[in-house]
Amino acid sequence: MQGRHVIVNDNMKSSPAVWQKLKRTRMIYLLILPTIVLFLTFTYIPLVDGLRISFQDFRFVGQSRFVGLKNYIEAVRTPGFWRVFRNTVILGFSNVVLTAFVPMILALLLNEIRFKVWKRFSQTIIYMPHLFSWVIVGGIWIFMLSPNAGIINAARSLFGLEPLYFMAKEAFARPIMIGVNLWKQAGYVCILFLAAIAGINPELYEAAMIDGAGGFKRAFYITIPELLRTLQVILLLNVMGALRIFNQIYVMRNEVIAPKIDVIMFYVYDRGLVQFKIGYASAIAVMIFLLTLIITLLAKRLIRYKV
Amino acid sequence: MKLSLRKPALMAGLAIVLLLVLPALAFTGGQQKKTEEAPVIWYTKIQGGREPAEVPLFEEEVERLTGIKVKMIRTTEDYDTKLAALLASGEPLDLVYIGADVFESLWDQQLFEPLNDWIEASPVLSDPGIIPQSEWDRIRRDDGEIYGIFNKFEQGTLPIVRMDWMEKLGYSEPQDLDEYYDLLKAFKTQDPDNNGKDDTYGLVIGYTLYDSPGIFGAYGLKRGFIKDSSGNLVAPWATEEAIPVYEWFKRLYAEGILEPNFITNKSSNFRDLFMTDKAGMTFYWAAWVGLFNQQVKAKNPDSPFKARGLTPPKGPGGRLLKAGNDGFMCIPKYSENKELAFKIAEFWHTHEGNVASTLGILGHDYNMENGKYVLTEVGKAHAMDHGAPQPKSLKWKNPLGELEGFDEAAAIVREYAVPQMPTPYDKIWETIVRSEAAKIILGDITPEQGIKNMQDRFKEEGIYNK
Predict the structure, then answer these.
(1) ipTM of the complex
(2) List of chain A residues whose C-beta atoms are within 8 Å of the C-beta of residue B210
(3) Interchain CB distance below 8 Å, A275 and B424
(4) Would you list the domain boundaries of chain B?
(5) Closest Cα to residue A55, out of A75, A43, A76, A72?
(6) In this structure, CATH architecture of domain B157-323+407-460
(7) What CATH number labels B37-154+326-393?
(8) Is B307 helix (H, G, I), strand (E, B) or coil?
């Protein structure tokens, strides 16, 4: 085997051999080509274009003026930017942690249900919110939290409590956004954990049971350690999306709670496509891109994730 | 093995061919069309067919009436965002509908063609019997040019009352804020729908005071920004003069007279509540007086429902309403079809254009029977709105008459409404004033604190220094 490797490596040095290998694997390259072209056209070229615009006083028609770092400096000097940045960090970090650990706990609990029909029913109920778009989810929760028609206030009234306008109180704004996001996403992540649990070698449980381990110990010493790899992946995916929260905020925000929940992506949308400060918005978008890259690399290192 | 390789090869080859050939075909297709006859590409939010399937019918109708081919792109959701994206990408648009606020934000981009010479040369648009010269002067920029052609008579918002409830409870038309309060309280407490339940509100609104300029108008406070004597921007609703108005709304909320979802209500929410016997008053567009009556009666012809516009309350500042922001038809500078685009905008203000923009499409929305216009069922559902339910033309008289209650409401608006001064900061104004106003009304902060917050936030945005 060793010799064969050496021969292959030697052959690689000569261009006819490279050509031979390319010819042999041409199907793979051909199949991947359309995807590469699409990615270049719709992701990377606009990305480079966005970078260029971020250094310009952008004009829709005619020549845009190069302004250097002006848009970036203006962004970091604007108090509004730091306000939405703080909101993004708080909401993003909460989402990263909660939508990883809570579904894991849910999966562990679901895994303990022995009655199959009930187990499937519970899975379906938990998973269902993930199927709805944010428009539907946002609408449902705004209605459920409404002061005069919502189920939450109806429940409060049973205890003689005054109705609360949850969606108009800054103090509730972030918990509501975090909670609703968890409600929507938990089912999907839970299914991923359940799939991982299903893949755990049953002999490990049998051996543990022979050794007298109870349900809690089996979960603690077998299931959870076996789920760590899945948890790593989910944490990494959550981190990559942490700074890109948009849809939920767009649907559920109102002016009163906006100072507590407006996030960077919404800020970019507002400055770029509502107020038409395209260069300024592009500068912030570039900063988000770089920040996401750095955070993702850091997170990869922290959680020791290897592809 | 060979077979399994060939199939992916075939698929990959096909994918590449499609990828390369389709754009080329599209390109050559576009070229061919240009040599034939390039249609006027008309990007719009409100004009044309009401449903997507009716857009082609409307295009045919315009071609029948003008001889000009048009291609309409009608977008209702996120219109401004999509418009900006299309303009930025250089999409070949020839005629675009644009609101005055967005036009103002885009003004320094110099995107649109100046239209002075064209308007002066147009027998339709230069006719003061159709559009008065004062209206053109109102939208003339500092450089003396006009960059947009009006779309319609924009009306305005005003208090709309359940007149049947008001009469039943023995109230006459309220004249000032105290009388408005008394009436609204009666709607809340005197069971105007006679169902024996405490399930009605005095007032239902949405988007936190969005349509409430009539109340501020009692103190002479205009919506948005005005310029002071030094030319600086000032927001009248963010001054101490507005405190009595906030106190008035706060009282309504505290006493349960104001429907409590006034911050999160969308238009459809509060319209529905008004039409389903849940509230005695709302603040909304004059055209909706007619539409409220029509929609309720369409479902229940025997309903006593009677919506009517009210004169706004009189206060120390007199009476004042806000006219709707202008909507314009503009021609992008890069359009290669400017002349025909202008002809379409001109057509919009002819009698035929007015018929199309109100009644709609012949044979679809209406028919001609013995020389008379007769709405079809589709036309009735469309409520004579195909982009300009009330045309700008002073010569226009709807051959079918207006919907119940509209004429009176429109007369009130014409008498008391003035347009908001457009600035590039209007969207920021909306966010700041409405958020602080909501907190005041909810009782979370005092009116004084709310006013201070508004002013601080305007300073933070750099608006009060401009």
Answers:
(1) 0.74
(2) none
(3) yes
(4) 37-154+326-393, 157-323+407-460
(5) A72
(6) 3-Layer(aba) Sandwich (3.40)
(7) 3.40.190.10
(8) strand
